[in-house]
Amino acid sequence: MTPREIAERLKTWALEAGFDRAGVASLEPLEHGPALVRWLERGEQAGMAWMGNRLDARLDPSRFFPGARSALCVALHYWPLAGQDDPEGDLWPRVARYARGVDYHDLMARWMKPLCDRIEAEFPSSKARYTMDTGPVLERELAARAGLGAVGKNTLLLHPEAGSWFLLGEIFTTLDLAPDQPLADLCGSCTRCLEACPTGALVEPYRLDANRCISYWTIEHRGEFAEGIAENLDGWLFGCDACQEACPWNAGPAPADHPELRLPPERAELDLAGLLGLDRESYVARFRGSPLKRAKLEGLKRNARAVR
Question: Side-chain half-sphere of 132: how many Cα atoms within 13 Å?
Fold first, then answer.
């Protein structure tokens, strides 16, 4: 089989596994690597010091997995969800849409691990390893190489049909796969995302300062808010979709058929007052398998007090 034929087979398998789109990226050092270094040097990663870990692999993806020659990049669409409208109440509309159902890390791992096994079984001399945003990989850059979208001014990946409502994963393989073609720029002169950001975290096109980002403060930050932060959360309890909601490409993407990402009934009934009253045992039971556990109970209550 040719590298193109193998690539097409692997992309078909990715769709069969449950993903919505797939593409192949080559593993040369990243073109925008110097921009990442400058971003780190300015301290715009805020408290996310781990962004500087394994910088060699972030700048040169071939170093992530010894012997890797290609990356199969996959996309999972998470909104709008078929058969479910936006939730009502004073809690869940304040939660970023990707975080209302199961933790996508768990869901994608359940699909990517068997996909790695299938690749190695079909091509016995090959090795495959999967990762997501938990690994030292600039997955947005790889996915852009793989044709899954073009980097937007809000620093997210944009696709003409899916907007930016999708999550990414990567399977590194020792197979030599024919790469896909990147998409052209989709933003043009539009600056709606920059204008919509409540805190000015998008300090310029294609650059986000996490020190100002609502998602950083409501998810990653531990302890009390810095001065002035609580007053500027713009009503968000966990994450923020403001720049995505403003993007014209997000006006009408096709519905995603992933019931696992829907808000489950046992959490849908919870409101802000109920969240503030949760004890640890109830929290563990209610939020088992939820992305909101990233903020921990203390962080969720801190956020709820700020937006109530």
Answer: 18
- The residue count for the chain: 308
Helices 104-122 and 3-17, axial angle in degrees (round to 10) = 140
- How far is Cα 205 from Cα 193, in angstroms, rounded to an integer? 9
Task: Give the tens place of pLDDT for each residue, 115-161.
Answer: 999 999 999 999 999 999 999 999 999 999 999 999 999 999 999 99
133 is catalytic: yes
> Quick one: 222 exposed, middle or buried, by C-beta within 10 A (0-12, 13-18, 19+)?
exposed
Q: Which position has the token pair 């020190």? A: 211
Question: CA-to-CA distance for 114 and 213, rounded, in angstroms?
Answer: 36
Q: Which domain holds residue 24?
A: 1-308
Q: 292: which DSSP letter?
A: G
Are 218 and 238 in contact by the 8 Å Cβ rule? The answer is: yes
Beta-strand ranges (E) seen in 78-189 are 128-131, 150-151, 157-158, 166-173
pLDDT in tens, 7-63: 999 999 999 999 999 999 999 998 878 899 999 999 999 999 999 999 999 999 999
Please check the confidence at residue 254 and state whether its pLDDT lies above 90. no
Catalytic residue among 133, 176, 180, 257: 133
Distances (CA, A) of 149 to 123, 125, 211, 272: 29, 31, 26, 36
Query: In the structure encoding, which two tokens stand for residue 186, read together?
Result: 């989709």
Q: pTM, whole model, 2 decimals?
A: 0.95
Omega of the bond leading into 182 within 30 degrees of 0 (cis): no
Cβ(141)–Cβ(152) below 8 Å:
no
**Is there a contact between 264 and 101 (Cβ–Cβ < 8 Å)?**
yes
Residue listed under structure tokens 């849908």: 268
> What does the radius of gyration of the chain's CA atoms come to, in whole angstroms?
20
Residue 253 has pLDDT above 90, yes or no: no
Tally of domains in the chain: 1
Q: Which of 255, 205, 277, 215 is nearest to 46 (CA)?
A: 215
